[in-house]
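Section handout 9: paired folding examples.
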Amino acid sequence: MANTAVVPSGKLHDMTGPIAENGKEILVSIKNIDITFGKGDNAVRAVQNASFDIYKGETFSLVGESGSGKTTIGRAVIRVNPLAAGEIDYKGVKISGKIPHSLDRDVIRNVQMVFQDPAASLNERATVDYIISEGLYNFHLYENEADRVQKVENMINAVGLLPEHLTRYPHEFSGGQRQRIGIARAMVMEPELVVADEPISALDVSIRAQVLNLMKKFQREKGLTYLFIAHDLSVVRFISDRIGVIYKGRIVEVASSEELFNFPLHPYTHSLISAIPIPDPKLEKGKVLYTYDPSIHDYSTDKPDFVCIGHDHWIYGNKKEIEEYKAIREKGEPLKPITIADPETAAEANKHRSETIDAEAEKQFLEAPVHDTGSLWYSILSFFLPILGIIGALLFKGHRHYRNYHACMKGAIAGFAVIIAILLIFALLLVLSIV
């Protein structure tokens, strides 16, 4: 482990990271990290034993469904989320946990983040000029006021906005323009690593390409490294050098972009790729979706591990699965995760899948407790005592007594309706008597 105390203040930018076996410089190394929220019985392991490296100058994309832990890892890299186990190294220097104040400032200076929601990530009470300049102020990255103004104007021009926009406030801009301001705020710090947390998901489709092209432009000009967090694999394929797939907090597959799309070996990766929309409506109608079922893995005795099967392709599985993955990969025949069938056949298959899900939901409903009879007496009692009926309904629902719940709700609603009707009649009679 690197000794963080020997890193001079401000020198992290000038250091060179360790060299991997493939000859590339490792900028960031994620080593067996766990991230937990809460304590005791309420603790939730958002990330479990995650490991991967990010090479200098590449775009490493982290993909997975919502809630899989993508953003959690990204926020851990910028030292927002603490680790429960493992460590994160930057150029071989440990930056997770308790580190010297000078190193902490170096990390902030060299690692910036572009957030998913451009509206929520910008200070609505600050002008664009101050938003972009805030990092310059905090780290005094300018010689004088004229130099600061010049840097801000150069950056606002670089992201496709105008100098006159600097005096305006974020609410005066569109979503795409606000995201450009967020990118300018990060890039003006001249970072080495940018964590981009779904930077285009909140934007219109027509604007997404512009923002992606802008980010690639900065990468070419400044040699930036991106940790790109996304769930849209159709976008990720064309902007990424390597891709990591995460499922419920665990990294299940890491490979280069073309390698992953040609050989999606893990079933979860297969399911993600099969869900990519096809632009042709006829082909999309004939596509057969592949649904990932975690129960296909038997890890009761043969424990899984995250290993490399060659071709710089890492995958999570037990010994039996790893041997199967290796055999498939060594054949060298690209897989076809997207299956196009006859539209009627595909519709029938998808309909059957939907009916299976509906049947499962109906089964859960019918497997209610024995005393969930929906007795008429519950409705009668709730009619005369509607407040108690509402309370009883909520208690029944909490214990999955759905029939009793509906009986109490019907009686309570009818009781409240009668009470309201009586009050209205009484009020009308009172008005008539006064008149």
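Moving on to protein 2 of 2.
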Amino acid sequence: MNSKVNLLEVKNLKVEFGKGNKKFVAVNNVSFNIYKGETFGLVGESGSGKTTIGRAVIRINSAAAGEIIYNGKKISGQIDKELDKELTRKIQMIFQDPMASLNERAKVDYIVSEGLYNLNNYGTEKERKNKVEQALLDVGLLPEFASRFPHEFSGGQRQRIGIARVLVMEPELVIADEPISALDVSIRAQVINLLSKLQKQKGLTYLFIAHDLSVVRFISDRIAVIHKGKIVELAETEKLFANPLHPYTRSLLLAIPTPNPRVEKNKKPEVYDTDKSHYDYDKNPPSWTEIESEHFVLANERELEDYKKLILPSR
């Protein structure tokens, strides 16, 4: 990351589902930014709203309130056709389940080419085939795989096809929605290493969504921790691991298994209970605060005082 230039800004984002009495707020007043060329990790348990945020950025879910700004342009709400076409190419998504996200009845050649067909983003048929061939080579697959169907591949290979489908569009921002959670443990490192290599080669920016902090630590420059639709802490990766402030962040870190059985045996799990928090929404509501440089936390005044005591001195 050479210079910190904002590629994506999410401001006070709110996403709702349903209407009336059945209305559910999935994401509530979330703000963050992603710098060009970085990997921004978004971590939380199932149902926390992390995938909803990713789908709002790619315009699958609409924003009930707030703004999403990409390259200085507002992309939430109504936009013109030209900008919509530009965003379709520049923002791409790798989906969680490599089996469900691939058309079982289509050959790999068509699956990888689908975005090219939709945007008419190629000249001759030969050019299209060359793009598909290069995308498959970029993810470590042979060009002859283009004539096969998804069911002929392993889970790791199917996810590589999904990544090739993204690469062929030459995107700027890639939203990776739990791209390794459906894969065998032995394959996960290969896919993570592939994503890191492609980022360096092609100057990609990632929004990396996951529930496993140990995986996100390996690939992310900064990490945001989300709980029940609200981001509770955001910091540079190593700063977050060295000095987690919010009790929910600490509970996630303690849930990471330790290779040493003696250490693991003596670990005391920390369960985050919102009922025991100090929030008094009437008199002293929590606010999003930069407690130290590039380290944000959701806390009220009383909690901030406690967190300040935990800040490690700069080395």
